[in-house]
Design brief:
With about 140 residues, the protein is mainly alpha-helical. It is built from 5 helices and 2 strands; from the N terminus they run αββαααα.
Length: about 140
C-alpha cells in the first residue's frame, strides 16, 4: 500500500504567468503569434504551448524510466486557453480500474479525517476526468 502522506510524491506547479515563461523559453512557429485575450491576459502562441506540452510528456517519460510513475495528474485549465488532451490521456483513463485499489483509500482517509492533501486533490481530479470521459464516450 502506498503511504501518500509520507511516501514519495512529486508536485510540479506553475504560477499564474506560465504563458510568459512559455514565450521566453519556447520558439513559436513562423506566423504563430502570442496574443492578449479578451480577458486581458497574455497567451503564448499555440505552437509554444504545443512545444511545452511535448516537453512535459518527454520529461514524464524520462522520469518514469528512472522511477516508475503510478499516476500523473494535470488538471485541465480553461483559464489558460484550455487543455488539449492527448491519446495518452485516454489510455491512462482506461487504466483507472486497475489503480482503484491504490486510489480509493486516499479518498476514504480524506473523508474520515476531513483532510485535503495534494494526493486527495489529485485523486479527485482524476475521478472527475474519468466521469467526464465516461459521459462523452465509454472507456475501452
Amino acid at each position: 500500500m502506498t503511504d501518500w502522506s509520507e511516501g514519495r510524491q512529486l508536485m510540479v506547479a506553475s504560477g499564474l504567468f506560465l504563458h510568459g515563461s512559455l514565450a521566453r523559453e519556447y520558439p513559436a512557429r513562423p506566423g504563430d503569434e502570442d496574443y492578449l485575450g479578451d480577458d486581458g491576459w497574455f497567451y503564448a502562441a499555440p505552437s509554444r504551448v504545443a512545444r511545452f506540452n511535448s516537453s512535459i510528456e518527454g520529461w514524464l517519460g524520462h522520469a518514469n524510466r528512472q522511477c516508475p510513475v503510478m499516476v500523473a495528474f494535470r488538471a485541465e485549465d480553461s483559464d489558460c486557453g484550455g487543455t488539449k488532451l492527448s491519446n495518452w490521456h485516454d489510455w491512462s483513463l482506461a487504466q483507472l480500474p486497475r489503480l482503484m485499489p491504490e486510489l480509493e483509500p486516499i479518498l476514504a482517509d480524506a473523508m474520515a479525517n476531513r483532510v485535503q492533501t495534494h494526493a486527495t486533490h489529485m485523486v479527485r481530479g482524476i475521478m472527475s476526468m474519468a466521469r467526464r470521459r465516461r459521459r462523452s464516450a465509454p472507456l475501452r
